[in-house]
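Lecture notes, unit on protein representations.

Consider one protein chain, 124 amino acids long.
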Amino acid sequence: QVQLVESGGGSVQAGGSLRLSCVGSGLPYSIQRMGWFRQTPGQDREGVASIHTAIGISDYADSVKGRFTISQDKAKNTFYLQMDSLKPEDTAMYYCAAGAPWGRWSSAEGYRYWGQGTQVTVSS
C-alpha cells in the first residue's frame, strides 16, 4: 500500500522559514518524480517544486524560485521542501505527490499518489 505522509506545516510570520517533510512508503519503482503542490480554497492545485528522484534534477515555480528548495533523503524515503523568506501569499495547504518522470512537472494530473496535506499559514 502506497502512503505519503506530510508534516512540518504551521503558522509563521512573513520572512520566516518552515521545512515540510514527506515520508513515502510502498512506492513502485516506476515512481521517479516527487512533487510539492499547494492549494487555497476555490483555486486549482499549483505546482511548487519537483525533483527527479533518480537524477536529482529539480524544478520550481517562478513564484518560489530562490526561496524554496526541494531535496530528498533516499535512505529515509523522505522528501523535503525548505521554505525561506515566506510571504503571506504562500499561505495554502501543501501536498506531497509522487508520479512518473514524464510530462509537465507542474501538472497535477501527472502524479498518481498524494499525501493528505499540511497547512502553511504566513501572517504579515
